[in-house]
Design goal:
Layout: H1 2-15, H2 20-33, H3 47-56, H4 70-85, H5 92-103, H6 106-117, H7 121-129, H8 135-157, E1 178-183, E2 189-193, E3 199-201, E4 218-221, E5 229-234, E6 240-245, H9 255-261, H10 263-271
Parallel strand pairs: 1-6
Antiparallel strand pairs: 1-2, 2-3, 4-5, 5-6
Helix pairs in contact: 1-2, 4-5, 4-6, 4-8, 6-7, 6-8
């Protein structure tokens, strides 16, 4: 799976050279991801519990209760910190300080993961400040370190989710919000979870963040000379969602890569006042 990711990265860089700035550093992390193999924890969800959660609009798990292999995630985070700490980055000193904390035991890494899963940015900022790192850097590295274990869980449980019966704007597996969306070749819209990568269908004319269906408050704009990419926005809640039209492309990359390759669309959305 990770090897496929690397091949997609190389293809995107060839086809869209401007994406190299964001994808090349991630490629280095993806190579490190091949060295860690998380273990899947046995999870059994009773049909009755699953059906009730589905019917009442509750995800299978709350983010803080996801049964993940945190030891593997901690190992991967240390590999990230060790590698990046030897580069000429401006924050290399902070990365080395974070590595010292992580190598002293898994307690520090678990604080990072717990803050991320609980979306406790205040606590994560305190942990980041303690090692002189930017909070967003620690957030990104922690999220990527968790990803192999989360994807393992997602793949094991995807059959337990009736995604066609899920019409909410948050993930049916972990309850997280979407970070990307795409239109299939038949025109159906799918949302992509920012945390676990689960995908589920969602109405085209509806904001996944505030549920408004007022067409006067919903709209989109496109970046110049970039066919197939749109930024859908909502004037009610001022949120936006980068969206890919798969009809335009012969081969589609995983959404996590498209999210990195389209950072310029985030900047454009921010300039328009959306968050």
């Amino acid at each position: 799976m990770t090897q496929d990711l690397i091949q997609h990265i190389d293809r995107l860089i060839r086809q869209r050279p401007a994406s190299e700035t964001s994808l090349a550093p991630f490629r280095e992390l993806a190579l490190l991801m091949t060295q860690v193999h998380p273990h899947a924890k046995p999870v059994k969800i009773e049909n009755g519990v699953r059906d009730i959660k589905q019917r009442e609009g509750f995800p299978l798990f709350s983010k803080e209760d996801l049964p993940l292999d945190f030891d593997a995630a901690s190992d991967l985070l240390k590999r990230f910190l060790k590698h990046l700490g030897t580069t000429d980055r401006d924050d290399s000193k902070g990365l080395r300080k974070a590595l010292e904390k992580a190598e002293a035991g898994n307690e520090w890494s678990r604080k990072v993961f717990d803050a991320i899963l609980r979306q406790d940015m205040k606590r994560l900022s305190q942990v980041a400040e303690g090692v002189d790192l930017d909070t967003q850097v620690l957030l990104f590295l922690g999220q990527v370190a968790l990803r192999p274990s989360i994807h393992l869980l997602r793949d094991a449980l995807t059959g337990d989710i009736d995604k066609n019966g899920w019409d909410y704007g948050y993930c049916p597996l972990c309850g997280s919000q979407p970070d990307m969306a795409y239109f299939t070749k038949t025109g159906k819209r799918y949302l992509h979870c920012e945390l676990c990568g689960e995908e589920w269908p969602f109405p085209r004319i509806k904001c996944p963040f505030c549920n408004t269906q007022d067409q006067e408050k919903l709209g989109y704009f496109e970046a110049e000379e970039e066919e197939g990419f749109r930024v859908y926005f909502c004037r009610e809640c001022l949120r936006y969602l980068k969206t890919i039209d798969q009809k335009v492309f012969e081969e589609v990359a995983p959404m996590e890569l498209e999210n990195l390759a389209t950072i310029h669309l985030d900047l454009l959305a921010n300039e328009h006042g959306f968050k």
